[in-house]
């Protein structure tokens, strides 16, 4: 499934979404116009993307159901009965920072749909260390691009992930795409190990990750 379609498929009917870093606002527009979301708050920290969003929301005739805001992270998103937070297309560290600055999302009733572009391990480490439970892990593939998506909520239940699982996730719903995800990270870690070895740097941690990725890839049908 395409990345934005996958986000939409993870919404609960009747939800009230907050799409942070909405850019073009395609997600809130599709979610509200299809009827799956009853309301959307969509924000961006930059005026350029927000004016694109404003134009698209206006063209779709949804200005009464989508509130747009120029805001940093989740600032102000708590005012609208938000039960679903979407943060897609940003780095994993920024995604974690945004969540960490918004205590209102530490609530069992709020679902977070996260699609980090980078540093997925840092985001998972943050989530697991801060009381968020990863409810499901997803993969989207568009051409050669493979995206990871995490659905979580605050439950304060402990969960354990290995170092390689922090990078690629585990128990993915889209089983047929797991091998593509592993191939991507095996290639990445082979390059890291080679580069570090060539400059005499310590490769022990990266080699351990690579070894676990390869082992899991070898058993991909059992994942
Ligand atoms: C690559 S776009 C992703 C757009 C859309 N969410 C998607 O997945 O297609 C990232 C957007 O996040 C916005 N952004 C970056 N930092 C932000 C922050 N701290 N708060 C809100 N928006 C932010 C950027 O201005 C940009 O429009």
Strand order of the largest sheet: 3-2-1-4-5-7-6
- What is the name of the CATH topology of the largest domain? Rossmann fold
- How many DSSP H or I helices? 8
CATH architecture of the largest domain: 3-Layer(aba) Sandwich
Describe the 3D structure:
- With 223 residues, this protein is α/β, with parallel strands linked by helices.
- It has two domains: 3-160, Vaccinia Virus protein VP39 (Rossmann fold, 3-Layer(aba) Sandwich); 175-223.
- It has helices spanning 3-9, 26-33, 47-59, 92-100, 120-129, 163-168, 178-198, 204-218, and strands at residues 15-20, 37-44, 66-70, 84-88, 111-115, 132-142, 145-154.
- Helix 3 (47-59) links the parallel strand 2 and strand 3 (66-70).
- Helix 1 crosses helix 2.
- It is elongated, with a radius of gyration of 18 Å.
- It starts with a helix and ends in a 5-residue tail after the last helix.
- The mean pLDDT is 96.
- The structure holds S-adenosylmethionine.
- S-adenosylmethionine (SAM) binds at residues 20-23, 43-46, 49, 72-73, 88-90, 94, 98.
Question: What are the defining features of this structure?
Answer:
223 residues; 2 domains; 7-stranded mixed beta sheet; elongated; binds S-adenosylmethionine
């Amino acid at each position: 499934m395409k990345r934005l379609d996958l986000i939409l498929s993870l919404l609960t009917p009747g939800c009230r979404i907050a799409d942070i870093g909405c850019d073009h606002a395609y997600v809130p527009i599709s979610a509200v116009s299809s009827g799956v979301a009853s309301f959307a708050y969509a924000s961006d920290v930059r005026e350029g993307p927000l004016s694109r969003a404003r134009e698209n929301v206006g063209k779709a005739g949804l200005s009464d159901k989508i509130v747009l805001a120029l805001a940093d992270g989740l600032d102000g998103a708590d005012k609208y009965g938000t039960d679903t937070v979407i943060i897609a297309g940003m780095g994993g560290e920024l995604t974690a920072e945004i969540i960490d600055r918004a205590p209102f999302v530490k609530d069992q009733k709020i679902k977070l749909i996260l699609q980090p572009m980078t540093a997925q391990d840092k985001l998972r480490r943050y989530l697991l260390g801060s009381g968020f439970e990863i409810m499901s892990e997803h993969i989207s593939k568009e051409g050669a691009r493979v995206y990871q998506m995490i659905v979580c909520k605050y439950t304060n239940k402990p969960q354990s992930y290995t170092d390689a699982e922090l990078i690629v996730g585990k128990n993915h719903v889209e089983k047929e795409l797991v091998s593509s995800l592993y191939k991507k990270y095996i290639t990445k870690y082979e390059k890291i190990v080679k580069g570090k070895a060539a400059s005499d740097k310590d490769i022990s941690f990266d080699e351990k990750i690579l070894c676990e990725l390869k082992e899991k890839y070898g058993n991909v049908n059992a994942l």
